[in-house]
Design goal:
Layout (H helix, E strand, L loop, with lengths): L5 H9 L1 H8 L10 H9 L39 E7 L3 H14 L2 E8 L8 H7 L12 E5 L8 H9 L3 H7 L8 H34 L4 E4 L4 E5 L19 H14 L10 H7 L11 E4 L1 E4 L6 H5 L12 H4 L16 E5 L26 E4 L5 E4 L6 E6 L3 H4 L9 H8 L14 E3 L1
Parallel strand pairs: 1-2, 1-4, 2-3, 7-11
Antiparallel strand pairs: 4-8, 5-11, 6-8, 9-10, 9-12
């Protein structure tokens, strides 16, 4: 329930009528072919505002989006909030809530959106309701830029090289395919591997260009999450953290002092909606971890599709607002805090103002994007070939990951969205996690 107060803060900030309008179910804007999509996407910024592909050998264009209207309550555009990178594909049904929440809780003030070219729908109409314009002062303030592949994707030999750096073995591991990589298995999975490669290349090059663009435009803290993920405070939970993973190896005095400070600070973190994450960072910017972690990996917490009762879901939600259509209101049951099996990898918050452009060039991991993220507060779970994660109680922020309804899950064609995965995550299993089955933990 720690995240639920955002809705009341949002209504108070923009007014009930506008809040209802912005959270209304979006109408589907179908795209018949790629050229139509390019026209719709391009219309959110004119030719003078077009962004070139990122190249560390070249400077960015001098002409960037000029805005004369500040977000509600802001005094300065560039230092008034947090920035984000969002790669989207047919997630219009999630986008309105995602924008409203982050506008309120962060606050989100600068957003770069890239639309997957295989999307059947466009988020343009939804984004236009939020985008800062030069003339319309009635809209909430988020400066939004919308990109297509021409703005960041490599071409020709560079694209081929990027694709083939992603191997069949990586695909097999990601999809939990246990058979050996042979000529016959290559032939069988080749079409799916092609899609997998395209997706990975798109993810990495978009994030690389987006982070660099936010730096060019004078931004600081920037998050790269998906439309089913929500950045929030990592409040302490005495009951839910009884069996949490704990650091057993020897620590330096500096590490121990920082960890102890984080433990104490988690006890007094503000309620969602009472203070923004950006304001909290500003207040504490001269202390650890904000001084020494320019790339801050954050643990995720997975919320399954097991619903609370209708009465619980609608409790204290103002009349007229459809709580059943808001994932942050509808789903409260989550995986065990600190476990890897369902929560999976971290997502990172980066202060791009303190990172050199060269560090954005070769993003290989969207979870820990730059080299300085790799070993930041990391634990390795699963032995020698396991995964790096952030210990849950060693972070001041976390990312909630919502599975959503079956209709939502099934709305997008994705090779990872199998019937077996759905049935597993739809069950009560994720909230009955067997603590005895925790992965072995190895300090990195």
């Amino acid at each position: 329930d720690t995240i639920r107060p955002w809705l009341f803060a949002f209504i108070k900030q923009v007014g009930e009528d506008l809040a209802l309008k912005l959270l209304a179910s979006p109408s589907t804007s179908s795209l018949n072919h790629q050229e139509t999509e390019r026209q719709q996407i391009g219309s959110l910024h004119n030719e003078n505002e077009k962004i070139n592909k990122f190249d560390v050998k070249e400077s960015f264009p001098d002409k960037i989006t000029t805005v004369n209207k500040l977000p509600i309550g802001a005094t300065s555009l560039n230092d008034s909030g947090i920035s984000a990178c969002l790669l989207i594909k047919d997630d219009n049904h999630k986008l309105s809530e995602w924008l409203a929440y982050h506008y309120t809780a962060l606050p989100l003030r600068h957003l770069i959106v890239a639309v997957d070219p295989t999307s059947k729908t466009s988020p343009k109409l939804i984004l236009e309701q939020w985008n800062i314009t030069l003339t319309d002062t009635t809209k909430p303030g988020i400066e939004i830029m919308m990109w297509n592949d021409d703005d960041y994707m490599p071409t020709g030999k560079e694209l081929s090289k990027a694709r083939y750096k992603i191997t069949f073995g990586q695909f097999f591991r990601k999809m939990n395919i246990t058979e050996e990589v042979t000529e016959s298995s290559r032939e069988l999975y080749r079409p799916e591997v092609r899609k997998f490669r395209n997706h990975r290349v798109r993810q990495r090059h978009f994030l690389s260009s987006c982070l660099a663009q936010h730096k060019k435009m004078g931004r600081s803290w920037t998050i790269a999450i998906d439309t089913d993920e929500y950045l929030t405070f990592n409040h302490h939970d005495s009951d839910g953290e009884k069996n949490i993973l704990k650091r057993k190896a020897k620590e330096t005095r500096v590490m121990a002092r920082k960890r102890n400070n984080i433990q104490k600070e988690r006890l007094i973190l503000p309620e969602t909606g009472s203070r923004t994450i950006y304001d909290y960072i500003e207040k504490n910017k001269n202390s650890m971890p904000w001084t020494d972690e320019i790339c801050m990996p954050l643990p995720r917490l997975f919320f399954g599709a097991v619903e609370s009762s209708k009465e619980e879901i609608e409790d204290k939600v103002p009349k007229g607002f459809e709580a059943l259509k808001l994932d942050t209101m509808r789903y409260r049951k989550h995986a065990r805090k600190g476990g890897f099996e369902y929560n999976l990898y971290d997502k990172s918050l980066l202060d791009v103002s303190r990172i050199d452009y060269t560090e954005f060039k070769d993003v290989e991991d969207v979870h820990r994007p730059i080299e300085r993220c790799k070993d930041q507060r990391s634990y390795k779970v699963g032995g020698k070939d396991g995964h790096k994660i952030t210990i849950f109680n060693e972070a001041l922020l976390r990312v909630h990951h919502y599975f959503g309804s079956f209709e939502s899950y099934n709305s997008r064609k994705d090779i990872r969205r199998t019937k077996e995965v759905c049935e597993n995550l739809w069950s009560e299993q994720i909230i009955q996690f067997d603590v005895s089955s925790i992965f072995n933990v190895v300090v990195m």
